[in-house]
Amino acid sequence: MPDNLTAADAALESVAADQKIAELEAQLRETSERALRTQAELENYRKRTQRELADERRYAVVPLVRDLLSVVDNLERAIEAAQQSSDGSGLLAGVKMVASQLENILKQHQCVRIETVGAAFDPNQHQAIAQEPSDQYPAGTVTRAAQAGFKLHDRVVRPAQVFVSTGPAAQS
């Protein structure tokens, strides 16, 4: 009989081991499925974030464009007024107002004109196109601007094209 007990015990142990293996396999499947779902969720999150970032970059200028549309409207009104009027003084005043409006809108969006005449030449903000003698400004100072430059926040969008003083003209 002791052999029967041993065989029965072995059979019980075998059944218990098979149940434990089946239980562990089920846990492994569940863990694998959870890991796959988590990986898929992470990939979806990554794609959604990239899509949102691309949209944000794409439409970042919408506030500026919206503000500039009023400038376009005023330019169209100035053109209509010029076509209907023989006097050009009103057109000049209208265009000056539109230019002022445009510069104010740029300032609202932190895009400002780079200081030129009378400022020390700064190669980070100015592009020297010529040098000229000047009794009014010391050497290395901007005497006049050929084209305005602009900065957006602290980054130069377009450097100002300037003439730079070489100091007083040599006396002969």
Describe the SSE topology.
Elements: H1 2-58, H2 62-84, H3 89-108, E1 111-113, E2 126-132, E3 142-147, E4 150-152, E5 155-158, E6 160-165
Parallel strand pairs: 2-6
Antiparallel strand pairs: 1-4, 3-6, 4-5
Helix pairs in contact: 2-3
Task: Please describe what this structure looks like.
The protein is of the alpha+beta class and 172 residues long. The protein has a domain at 112-172: Head domain of nucleotide exchange factor GrpE (Nucleotide Exchange Factor Grpe, Chain A, domain 2). The protein has three helices and six strands; from the N terminus they run αααββββββ. The longest helix is centred in the first third of the chain and has 57 residues, at 2-58. The chain is elongated.
Q: Give the structural class.
A: alpha+beta
Question: How far apart are the termini?
Answer: 135 Å
The biggest beta sheet is recorded as: 3 strands, antiparallel
Q: Roughly what is the average pLDDT, rounded to an integer?
A: 88
Large-scale geometry: elongated
Q: Descriptors for this entry?
A:
about 170 residues, alpha+beta, Nucleotide Exchange Factor Grpe, Chain A, domain 2, three-stranded antiparallel beta sheet, 3 helices, 6 strands
